[in-house]
């Protein structure tokens, strides 16, 4: 599912406070880029949870029906409304920890040496990809 939700962003001295009124989500970020990513992550996770439990996902509010003065953090700083796009299909792919089978081509001599040494080629490939892509290992 792809959608766009209105989000309240409130700038304080220490952080950007985030409220997604349509989904009762509160989060925060260290700066605006981080706040948008935190909002996107929270919205996608909430929508996936609702999908999985067969609950209705609220439609985004019309911008003209929102009032930043009624926001949870309205007294904490200056608030603006912006839109955050989501894609739950892509999010599911990103967080999926299932193992997938990939065919890898190795020179015969290298495969021979790996087998002789008892090396787990799949584990080494995973670790190498995580390092090359600068990612954190997921369970």
* SS-based class: alpha+beta
Estimated share of beta-strand residues = 15-25%
Give the biggest beta sheet.
Answer: 4 strands, antiparallel
The number of domains is 2
Major sheet: arrangement of strands: 3-2-1-4
Low-confidence runs: none
CATH topology of the largest domain, anyone?
A: Double Stranded RNA Binding Domain
Number of helices: 4
**Which bin fits the share of residues in helices?**
25-40%
**Separation of termini?**
25 Å
Count every beta strand, where a strand is a DSSP E run of 2 or more residues.
4
- The CATH first-level class of the largest domain comes to Alpha Beta
Shape: elongated
Mean pLDDT: 96
CATH architecture of the largest domain: 2-Layer Sandwich
Please trace the helix and strand order, writing H or E for each element: EEEHEHHH
Q: Please tell me how large the radius of gyration is.
A: 21 Å
């Amino acid at each position: 599912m792809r959608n766009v939700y209105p989000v309240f962003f409130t700038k304080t001295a220490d952080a950007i406070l985030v409220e997604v009124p349509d989904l009762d989500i509160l989060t925060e970020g260290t700066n605006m880029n981080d706040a948008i990513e935190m909002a996107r992550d929270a919205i996608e996770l909430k929508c996936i949870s609702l999908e999985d439990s067969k609950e209705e996902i609220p439609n985004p509010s019309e911008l003209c029906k929102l009032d930043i003065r009624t926001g949870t953090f309205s007294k904490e700083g200056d608030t603006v409304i912006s839109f955050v796009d989501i894609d739950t299909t892509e999010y599911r792919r990103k967080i999926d920890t299932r193992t997938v089978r990939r065919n890898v081509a190795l020179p015969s001599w290298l495969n021979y040496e790996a087998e002789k040494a008892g090396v787990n080629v799949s584990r080494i490939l995973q670790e190498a990809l995580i390092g090359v892509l600068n990612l954190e290992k997921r369970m």
